[in-house]
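User: Watch each token:
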Amino acid sequence: MIPARVFVLMPSVNRESERSVRTDGDPARSFAPPAGRRPDFYREPFRVFVYDSLASTNTFLKTSLNSFPDYSAVWAINQTGGRGKFERKWISEPGKDLCFSFILPLENIPGARYPNLTQVTALAVCRVLQSRGLQPVVKWPNDVLVSGKKICGILCETAKRGAAAGAADSMVVGVGININSSPGAPAAMDAPATSFAAETGRAADLREILDELLDAIMPLFLLFKTGGFAPIAGQINERLAYRDATVNLHATGKTHRGAIKGLNAEGALLFDCAQCGLMTIFSGNVSLEKINPDFAAQNSSASPTCLRLK
């Protein structure tokens, strides 16, 4: 039996006031941590706050954004209402899987590049899992697979500090990774799933993996912030799931049948549709399910090229 807490909290370093945290020397960006609490531990530049139970780490950070400085991370030992893209449920076992969210500042990052942060995070996850002997791949746009099964989901949501109207200034990045899930437990998700323990036959320390992930995310984020997505695209293409395989792409209001050719320098999916030709897709979802012949027949006259989504 794995204990509910598989980590040892490090003593807080006295770098900040217990009542407020100030970043960049800007008095306007002063924060009061919830209930005056200080981080449970540090992984520079991240301050990590640990909670026994939260409904959703992303929702918690978004609704409490003004109480946390940039590079704050919230880790829930038990996440009871985890969610992913399209509001899909993310199911995790308390004390066995890793569920956390963190804040990245969007300063000097064009809005068109915000979606790339999902891929940046996915690459960091792949690097950590690969260093532990697995062979992960990125399933565009926001999952990481091992042995063809989902081991990690990522949800990026823009947010804004303060009440004044204006553009988003923060990205809340949520990460859920199946680490020590019991055999069969990951199958309760919306797609075939696996865990680190299921793949390796051994348990892992959640705190160690969280530390490694935060260490992996920061240099990639700085590289992306200064150089855009192009320096990262090649590394993701090397790990891109279903490349050149026949899949379904749900995008542009239709289901397209064809092959993934890679990601371009902007992070868009290059998809060779059997009927539409080469497409550049910035938002959508890839699946392997077979198309129902009756559905295809019903849609063929209405959409001569690809099937309309119901």
